[in-house]
Description:
The complex is a heterotrimer of chains A (95), B (212) and C (113).
Chain A: H1 3-24, H2 33-58, H3 63-89, H4 91-94
Helix pairs in contact in A: 1-2, 2-3
Chain B: H1 2-6, H2 8-25, H3 30-50, H4 54-79, E1 81-87, H5 91-97, H6 109-121, E2 125-131, H7 134-142, E3 148-151, E4 161-164, H8 167-173, E5 183-186, H9 204-209
Parallel strand pairs in B: 1-2, 1-3, 4-5
Antiparallel strand pairs in B: 3-4
Helix pairs in contact in B: 2-3, 3-4
Chain C: H1 5-8, E1 17-21, E2 24-28, H2 30-51, H3 55-80, H4 83-112
Antiparallel strand pairs in C: 1-2
Amino acid sequence: MSDWMNAASYTLMGVGIVFWFWGTWPLLGHRSVLFKLHSLSVSDTLGSMAIVGGLLLQIPEEWPLLLLALISLAIWNTVLGYVLAYCSSGREDHG
Amino acid sequence: MADLSENIYIVAIAVLLPVTATMTVTQRNPYHALVIRGILGAVAALVYALFGAADVALTEALVGTMLSITLYAIAVRSSMSLRLGVWVPDGEAMGHDAPGGSREESVPVPLRTALQAPLQKYHLRLEQVPYPSLAALNHALQNREVHAIYGPLLGPETLPQLHIRLQRLYDLLHGSVPPELAIAVYTPVNPAPEPPPAVPAMPPANSLEVTP
Amino acid sequence: MQPTHIQDLPQLSVNYFEFSIFNFQFSILPMNGILIAQIGALLIPIYEAWQDEDIWQKMLAFASIATKTSIMILMVSVLRDDWMIGVVGVLILSVGNASLMLLAHVLKRMNQL
C-alpha cells in the first residue's frame, strides 16, 4: 500500500469521525425531533460514507462489498429519515 | 499488559453490552423498553461480530432484533389496552342523535381524556369496541369480551353509565370520572364464564353414558 | 520503563501512537484509535436513549446506534481482514433499518388510538 493512499484513507476516516461527532452532538440538546433528525441523517450518512470510503482505500480488493455498503447507506438512511419524520410528526394531528 | 493495550477497544465494546442490558431492564414503559432492546440487539451484534461469531451476529440482528421487536410491539399493543364497549347505533339513527359524530367520538372527549389520564400511568391504551345495541353491549360485558361498557344503560333520561367488571380497574378509574359526565359502577359478572356452546350434534350413545 | 512488547510485534508500515495512563503504556494502531473514537461517538446516542423520556428521541438514538454499530462491524472486518464479518456487517446495515421502520409504524398507530 502506497504511503499517500494510506494517508488519504486515514484522512477520510478522520473526517467521517468528525462528521459523526458533529451530527450526534445535537442529540443531547433539548431540540425538536425533526431538528435532531435532520442533523443526524445528514452528518451520520455522510460520515459513514466517508468511513466506508476510507476502508475502501485500505482494501481495494473487497470493493464489491464496500460498494454495496455505500449504496445501502445512501438509500436506506434517506428512506429511514423520511419514514421517521413522517411517523413522528403524524401524531399531532390525531392526538 | 500487551493484550489489554492492544485490544482495549474489545474491552470497551464488551462493556457496552451489560450497560445496555441494564438500561433495558430498568425501563418502566414497555414501548421504551422495546426501543432500548433494539439498541441492545445492535450492540450485541457488534460484540458477536467482534469475537468472530459472524453467524450469531447475523441471527441476533435479524431474529433477536428485527423479528422479536416487531412481534413484541404488536403483542404489547394489543394486550395492554382497556377494551371499552360503546353503543354505536346504525348510521341514520346516529345522524339524529349525535350530528357530526363519528365512531371515534362515541365517548365524549372530556370523558375520554379523564379516563386516559389514570390509564397512561399504567401504560394502558383505551380501545373502543362498538356494539350496535344496548343488549349486545350488556351481553359483551357478561361474556367478558370487554373490560367495561359505556352508554345510556338505564334509559335516555339519566346520566350515561360506565360499567366496569374488574375491581382493580374500577378502583383505578372511578375517582377520575367526572360526576357530571357519567356514573362509574362496579358490575362484577358471574365468576364462572359461560361454557362454550357444546357440539350441537351429540351422538345419543354418548349422552347415555352421562349419569347425573 | 520501556515496553517490551512493541519489539515482538510484526513490523508494520504504520506508526503507533504511544501514551501512558496511570503507569500503563498504551501503544495503539491508527485503526484501533479510529475504532476507539467510534466507541466514543456511540456512547452519545446510548446516553441520549437512557436519559430522554420521549419515545421518538429514543427512536432517533436507536437509528443512530444501528448505523454506527454496523459501520463498526465493517471496520472490525477490515482490521481483521475477515470477509465473513464484512458480509454480516453489510447485511445488518441494509436489513437492520427495516426493523426501525416497522417499529416506527407500530408506534405511530399506537399514538393514533
